[in-house]
Amino acid sequence: MCFSHLELCLYSEKLQNLVELCYPPFGDELMDFGILGSCNGVLCLYSNGDYHSLIYMWNRSSNKYTTLPKPSHNPRYFGFGVNHKSGHLDDFKVVTIFANANAEVYSLRMNSWKAIADGFLPSIELTCRNFDHPVFLNEFVHWCARVSCYLDSKCPWLIVSFDFANEVFQKTMLPDILSNDDGAKFVNVVSGHLCVFAASDNDFSAYELWVMMEYGVVDSWTKMCTIEKTEKFWWPLGFPTTGSIVARGHCKHDENTLLVYNLDRKKFKCHLPHLPIQVQAFAASVIAHVPQSAIVGTT
Length: 299
Description:
By secondary structure, the chain is mostly beta strands. The chain has one domain (2-294): Neuraminidase (6 Propeller), CATH 2.120.10. The chain contains 1 helix and 25 strands. The strands form 6 sheets. Strands 12, 13, 14, 15 and 16 form a 5-stranded antiparallel sheet that branches. The protein is globular and about 50 Å long. It starts with a strand and ends in a 20-residue tail after the last strand. Pfam families: FBA_1 (PF07734). InterPro entries: F-box-assoc_dom_typ1 (IPR006527), F-box-assoc_interact_dom (IPR017451), Gal_Oxase/kelch_b-propeller (IPR011043), SCF_F-box_component (IPR050796).
């Protein structure tokens, strides 16, 4: 699924079919917005206002949505997911991290925010870019991050996650060869496993793909493949099918093109030039609607 401030498009799993969708029912309220994530068929969107961000949960299938109450401060980072351990498919949550390292979590079932007692992790800096979303897996939302360092230029890489069930932050270490390498890192999910794309020397044209084969076990990190240096600069977005990587990058003088890299053929195919602002993997809803008690607008 692709978003910009002008259009909303949906692509099939194999990126062969393009469907233009109706704009969100709250679209007139949004001047500049982005995607926080997608979970159980519900999209979480935010708009940047002059003072506070507006956050929405939108079930694209039913076209119903809810507007979240505003957090106490304007967030610097967001994460979106669901607490399956509660026994409710619709126990959606949003975590926000502020510039002062405080943090809050919103619960849709409670329709309220609450402060995270311990705040964000000290001496950690998230590395999100405007095309790099945190990913949700196993009740956790994950970001790539670096240890803050002021005197030493070698700032180790790691993964930071937020546990939506217990509402705490935690750290997951990367293999030393990745942790101490300067190249950019992108966290993702492949076949139900947490993974990391590691760029070579920040040139964004060659990557290693590392997969955590057993969730939470640092020793289970395994290098699955190396994507040799290509003629294109690209940034990984996800895995639409087995054996391929969907990416954003340069193609035919357009630096915002949707690309698909075939791991067997080791070749790119250009699918969509002039890519909209953001891209998000999306699956149809497995629940009927965002809870009626939270609905503030419908079609």
